[in-house]
Design a protein that fits this description.
By secondary structure, the chain is α+β, with helices and mostly antiparallel strands. It has one domain (10-108). The chain has three helices and three strands. The protein is 39% helix and 31% strand. The longest helix is centred in the last third of the chain and has 22 residues, at 71-92. A three-stranded antiparallel beta sheet has the order 2-1-3.
Length: 113
């Protein structure tokens, strides 16, 4: 691990909640055409009291221990998967022919906080 830690607020310390803030650049493309490009911060809550938090903890441990990813790479992987999952839910509602398929790219943007 690189030694980077997610920030904790006083309230979060009491609850045992850590939140990693992963800055990303999201690019939506259609073929070679960029339709939209924007920056966002993806919050990854590591919390043992919620199912989502437990899943993030398990995924993080798997990526760092089994796959030997660095802390930063594991957090970026988790954030990318969250963005892709949300995008799939949105695009699943839209029925389009395959030749109109949109692509989503997620890039690192800045330091994880």
């Amino acid at each position: 691990m690189t030694g980077k830690k997610a920030k904790k607020t006083t309230q979060q310390k009491e609850q045992g909640l850590y939140v990693a803030i992963v800055p990303v650049k999201i690019i939506i493309e259609h073929g070679d055409t960029i339709l939209q490009e924007y920056e966002d911060d993806i919050d990854i809550p590591f919390d043992e009291t919620t199912n989502e938090g437990k899943q993030y903890i398990a995924k993080f441990l798997y990526l760092t221990n089994e796959k030997r990813l660095s802390t930063e790479s594991a957090l970026f992987t988790i954030a990318s998967e969250a963005v892709n999952e949300e995008a799939q839910q949105i695009t699943a509602k839209i029925s389009t022919p395959t030749y109109h398929e949109l692509q989503l790219r997620v890039k690192r943007k800045g330091e994880i906080r």
